[in-house]
UniProtKB/TrEMBL annotation:
GO terms for molecular function: sequence-specific DNA binding. This is AsnC family transcriptional regulator. It comes from Marinomonas communis. InterPro entries: ArsR-like_HTH (IPR011991), AsnC-type_HTH_dom (IPR000485), Dimeric_a/b-barrel (IPR011008), Tscrpt_reg_AsnC-like (IPR019888), Tscrpt_reg_AsnC/Lrp_C (IPR019887), Tscrpt_reg_HTH_AsnC-type_CS (IPR019885), WH-like_DNA-bd_sf (IPR036388), WH_DNA-bd_sf (IPR036390). Keywords: DNA-binding, Transcription, Transcription regulation.
């Protein structure tokens, strides 16, 4: 694990909230001058702590009004089955997240975002259930998002 000081942690907290900050804005927020701030950001990126920078979009403004959380069961628990499933799921743009889980009555939890129920039906029957090894599917649908956060907690590093 990389050793981080309070300033590094503060930089990461600020960038998690808004990665579009200019170096000057970031430096002002963390109490550094621009040059040392930029050096620290580059060091954090090179360390591998920063996975990637993205822009978050509003689903509803893009006509993506249906979010489904799908529990997937596999017929066999073999590396080949899991590899095929994961490769296929990674190719589907509708899949926002896919996680191999334990402690549930399923093997994977998948989050899918589509325009409407008809598109979900097409996705489910035309793509997801056609993957070899998928033996069970149970869907739940988002009614309202109570909390949605992309930031990781960093308080334990202080």
């Amino acid at each position: 694990m990389v050793q981080l000081d309070r300033i590094d942690i503060r930089i990461l907290q600020e960038l998690q909230q808004d990665s579009s900050l200019t170096n000057q804005e970031l430096a002002d927020r963390v109490g550094l001058s621009p040059s040392p701030c930029l050096r620290r950001v580059k060091a954090l990126e090179e360390s591998g702590i920063v996975d990637r920078k993205v822009m978050l979009l509003k689903r509803s403004e893009l006509g993506l009004k249906l979010t489904a959380f799908i529990q997937i069961s596999m017929d066999r628990h073999t590396p080949d089955r899991f590899t095929v499933f994961e490769e296929q799921v990674n190719s589907f743009p509708e899949v926002r997240a896919c996680n191999l889980v334990t402690g549930q009555n399923c093997d994977y939890l998948v989050e899918v975002v589509v325009e409407d129920m008809e598109k979900y039906h097409d996705f489910l029957l035309g793509k997801l259930t056609r993957i070899p090894g998928v033996s069970g599917v149970q869907s739940s649908f988002l009614l309202r998002s109570v909390k949605e956060n992309t930031s990781l907690p960093l308080g334990h590093l202080l």
